[in-house]
Amino acid sequence: MKKIWSLNFSPDGKYFATASTDNTIKIWDSQGRFLKNFIRSYRWSFKC
């Protein structure tokens, strides 16, 4: 499991995004706590 660098909530609180040391951003549903989408980069790191 990779460490989370950053976490941020959407303005309406329905979703949150995490940026991890594996160069991914994951978009989560905050009520059901399930993964909605993810973005992977092989070159750059991300921050939410």
Keyphrases for this structure?
4-stranded antiparallel β-sheet, 0% helix, 48 residues, mainly beta, elongated
Could you walk me through the main structural features you see in this protein, from its secondary elements to its overall organization?
By secondary structure, the chain is mainly β. The protein has one domain. Helix content is 0%, strand content 50%. It has strands at 4-9, 15-20, 24-29, 35-40. Strands 1-2-3-4 form a four-stranded antiparallel beta sheet, with no helix packed on it. The chain is elongated and about 30 Å long. The protein starts with a strand and ends in an 8-residue tail after the last strand. The mean pLDDT is 86.
Strand order of the largest sheet: 1-2-3-4
C-alpha-based Rg, rounded? 11 Å
Oligomer: single chain
Number of strands: 4
Sequence of secondary-structure elements: EEEE
State the major sheet: 4 strands, antiparallel
- Fraction of residues in helix: under 10%
What's the average pLDDT? 86
Strand content: over 45%
Structural class: mainly beta
Total of domains: 1
The low-pLDDT segments are none
| Rough outline | elongated
Q: Give the termini distance in whole angstroms.
A: 19 Å
Number of helices in the DSSP assignment: 0
Chain-wise SSE layout:
Blueprint: E1 4-9, E2 15-20, E3 24-29, E4 35-40
Antiparallel strand pairs: 1-2, 2-3, 3-4
Summarize the structure.
0% of the residues lie in helices and 50% in strands. It is mainly beta and 48 residues long.
